[in-house]
Amino acid sequence: MKKNLLYVLSILVIASVVLTACGGAAPATQAPATEAAAQFTCALITPNPLGDRSFIDASARGIARANEELPVKCDIIETNGVAEHETALRGAIAQDYDLILGLAMDAEMFVGLAEEFPDQKFASPSEIFLETLPENLVAYQIDVHESSFLVGVIVGSLTKTKTVGAVVGGDAPALNQFYYGYKQGVLEVCPDCQVLVSYLGFDFSNPTLGLETALGLYDQGADIIYQVAGRSGEGVLEAAAQRDLYAIGVDSNQDDIQPGHVIVSSLKKVEATTFDPIKMVVDGAFAGGFQRRGMKEGFAGLSWDEGSTTFETQGPADMTAKIPEIKTLVEEYRAKILSGEYKVCDAFVPETPECVELLAK
Amino acid sequence: MNNQRWKKLLDAILVPVLAVLSGLVVMGILILTLNKPVLESYAILFSNGFGCKEYGNCIFLTTLERATPLILTGLSAVVAFRSGMFSIGQEGQYLLGAAAAAWLGYAIHLPPILHAPVLLIAGMLVGAAYGWFPGVLRVKLGVNELLSTIMLNSIAALIVEYLVQFPMRADTSAVAHSPVIDESAQLMSFFPGSKWGVGFVLAVIAVIVVYIYLWRTKSGYEQRMAGQSRRFALFGGILSDRAAIRAMLISGALAGLAGAIEVMGVHRRIMTGFSVGLGFDGLTTAILGQVHPFGVFIVAILFSGLKLGAQIGLQLNLNIPRELGGTIIGFIILFVAAGKLYEENIVRAREWATRRRSSRLKRESG
To answer: Full-prediction pTM beyond 0.90?
Structure first.
């Protein structure tokens, strides 16, 4: 028995020697196997492997869409953790891609690379918080305060306890943008409502923490909770189902995660910020710098806008009955915001009058 | 050098080489099932792990840079294992050493000649202190060091996560990170476009120092004796308890140094997700390297090169998913771990050869 195993192994060894020996000779002819150079190519470097059910997957959808709709060939390079980011980026640079997209890369490192390779175009589908960017790097930021305001309007119209909550990943402008907009929306339609908030201390990967926090808010009388907490937020949705109460999804369409308990999701479309720079390069309109996109450009919105009817069909009758009326209200506010008639507080500029007024409440 | 010694050395090299080759065969089979070109994938695996195409884009330099923390965490494991301590606490020591260096890198300002050494020493001290705990627990209370180091790893990971998220957090970016360390604290790299630099030299020095310490000094001899046979060591007058604690201190210092170098030479700061199992990779390196400093040095370079080639190179060139790269590395480790099989085979082959030779000699003479 053991002897047989040894034979098998020795055969494997011999075969491997033979195979590698052939392999060594091959590269000269086979290495430049890249396809016709005329086609535009791009690569997305992900910060962690695919399958997060959140923004990495969303970004990958943007690449899939680009491959489908544009004359491009885009690859996805998965990495696992910061130690591999720069290596993967440099590897991609060496492959002569026309555009390299780095999702949630370390800002200084990414900018440093862009300065080192001024002829290579780079894009960041996610926010980069720096003062300036080099010419060959474009960074996107999605403004979510306006879409969160619409969420607030929906929540303010549906709450029965006049107390609503928000579970926010951390106390930072990028996350408060969700929360401030939401709060303003709730108070707009329900001035005597109370908005509770719990911050999770930047723990975005702890559904148990999200669940416990949400249960705490429900215990304080909240009946609808807006979750802005990545994977931790899945716990908030779970808590809503446990208590037979309600929650709001975030980033992607989460209406179907706990059907009937998730009223609506506020979308932050990383797929769009992944697709957009590719399209810019294809159109020959690439320009470095910051790009802010929001509800107006369709980069942020509601799952209802995309035809999600999960809550309408599976929610309790007394709430779903109100939905047509609420939808009209939402559209009224949307029109007002888009025309500039109504201003929503943006947490990045807390000194504006609308923010000062909101924060005083 | 005598014949016996050469034979031993040859065996030590032959086993990992054969194991890697077997791993590569399995890789070929896996790639065949994906309908990707097998031969090309081998070429890419090696050119993207050990190749050097042009100035400013030399992957082998990246491999050496990635190997640096592996060499040090590997050495850390070697010192512990050789002294009879099955410590797998490298991950925690590495993280805390890194956090100490990252903090001192921006919190204090010193002239360049002083700043970098201060950080390196701080990293080593913190690592050593964190290695001391399981050592003392083992010696005084008989706590199994395997269990205590596993727990201490989790604790260190959470402490560092907290530090990065709150006290050391630099700004409000989505990924929490500390401020960039002062220029005076950064370790120089040798070529632009790569982070391969002084840190690697320090690692090489550490390899030599550890070798000399373990095999050429009295206390190193005590270490090894205490590791190989506690009772014999005691009989010989070696205080094996002291040797065990000393081993944990050195082991912790080496892992802490790895963390400090990673901060000072590569990332220039610490951030969430700083270590993705680097400490454990060091453990693998130590075992694959036959628990010998020179073995660790070779295996660390081989391992990081294979990792780059398999997990990034194959993705970039052939769209082979990174999971497959990970699987290939897993197979190689498995084959090396099963090194006994090869050893037996080698011995058998050698016996067979000797028998043949002797029978031929007999025939010729007779």
So the answer is: no
